[in-house]
Specification:
Layout lengths: L3 E6 H15 L3 E5 L1 H5 L3 H10 L4 E4 L2 H9 L6 E3 L8 H6 L4 E3 L2 H13 L8 E6 L14 H9 L4 E7 L12 H18 L7 E4 L1 H6 L7 E4 L22 E6 L2 E5 L17 E6 L17 E4 L2 E4 L9 E4 L10 E8 L2 E3 L1 H8 L3 H6 L7 E4 L3
């Protein structure tokens, strides 16, 4: 077996869910486990989140919800985007909660409910998403009452919540979050005036749950935070979160390289003095961005940060270890802690001008996941 793996601490995920739930109380907790649990593994993460106090799970795709059901998870699972016409029957059959934001979406869902024999005694649960300014998906505020009424008028559908999504909650002080919430409140007032009962409202992602008390409402939808990562550097430390994922390998080859010799593709990395170069058997096919080496990326060997020498290749990286002893089989940490040194997903993100979400989601499925403290 190739000596490469990611470790996922499920106890950390449970603890993060509990900490975020406490911070946002009395709001209920929705744990977002889309994108294979942000690269951590959707099914074990879902179980750990529920053990930590999550009330609801959320996914992006019907297929992601079906995966949870096939694993025996019976909790409420909300699909955050409106299902396509060829997915609706699957959504209903799997007893997933649907999101809607178009009249066609409501009509198609009602037809699927009828085909499945669903009735007012066992309706399909529906959530109405409102676009308050992010302009990704959602019903326009002026059309929200009519669409909600369409849901209410279908006996086999149950309007369970109305929600929106914050576009800049990870930017403390940005006034647009307050503007979005004001627009959301106007929609809710219009629904109340129309006599439409809304049992639950929600607007907060992790950033809003951390920094915007007025966004917490009845439920918060936490994604990146449950994995122990802050949504933005400006929000670090608001809640004590523990990163759940670490990335490991072992040295597969060692050689001495003379001063001035070119290393890796392009031969642009040339050590000033003779040095020891260690090969580590993972690369951009495993989720290491190709620019990580040229942008200052390091790994930990022997508890010391060591520079990646030259370009990341598809299956391997080269690491400059100087004159320090290193042997085949020595442990390597790419994300995580070794001794007193630590490299975080946020460190990679900072080097590459991206966000930690992209880093952890990008770790390839060909990297085996090992789970610690599985509930």
């Amino acid at each position: 077996m190739r000596p490469v793996w990611a470790e996922v601490d499920l106890g950390a995920i449970s603890a993060n869910v509990a900490a975020l739930r406490d911070h946002a109380a009395p709001a209920a907790m929705c744990a977002v486990v889309k994108a294979d649990g942000y690269g951590h593994g959707a099914v074990p993460v879902a179980r750990a989140a529920l053990a930590g106090g999550a009330d609801v799970l959320a996914v992006a795709l019907v297929a992601e919800g079906v995966e949870l059901r096939e694993a025996g998870i019976g909790a409420v699972v909300m699909v955050l985007s409106q299902a396509s016409a060829d997915e609706i029957d699957t959504l209903v059959a799997a007893d997933l909660d649907a999101t809607v934001y178009t009249a066609d979406g409501v009509g198609g869902l009602a037809d699927a409910a009828a085909r499945a024999g669903r009735t007012a005694e066992r309706p399909v649960r529906v959530h109405l998403k409102v676009d308050t300014g992010m302009h990704r998906v959602g019903v326009q505020p002026r059309d929200a009452v009519a669409l909600a009424q369409q849901v209410v008028d279908e006996p086999a559908l149950e309007l369970c919540s109305v929600f929106t999504h914050c576009a800049v909650a990870d930017e403390p002080g940005n006034p647009f979050t307050a503007k979005q919430l004001q627009g959301f409140d106007r929609v809710l007032a219009d629904l109340a005036d129309a006599g439409i009962d809304v049992p639950c409202t929600h607007a907060a992602n992790t950033a809003a749950a951390l920094d915007h008390p007025s966004a917490r409402r009845d439920l918060v939808r936490c994604g990146i935070g449950i994995y122990g990562l802050d949504p933005a550097p400006a929000l670090a430390g608001r809640v004590d979160l523990v990163p759940a994922l670490s990335l490991h390998a072992r040295v597969s080859h060692v050689k001495r390289v003379a001063a001035g010799e070119g290393i890796s593709y392009g031969l642009r990395y040339r050590p000033a003095v003779e040095t020891t170069i260690a090969t580590v058997p993972l690369g951009y096919a495993d989720g290491l961005p190709r620019r990580l080496g040229s942008n200052g990326g390091t790994v930990l060997i022997g508890g010391t940060p060591r520079p990646i020498a030259g370009s990341v290749t598809m299956d391997q990286i080269l690491v400059d270890c100087g004159d320090d002893p290193v042997e085949v089989g020595d442990p390597v940490v790419l994300i995580g802690r070794q001794g007193s040194a630590r490299i975080g997903a946020e460190d990679w993100a900072g080097m590459l001008g991206t966000i930690s979400y992209e880093i952890v989601c990008g770790i390839s499925p060909r990297v085996p996941r090992r789970y610690l403290e599985e509930p």
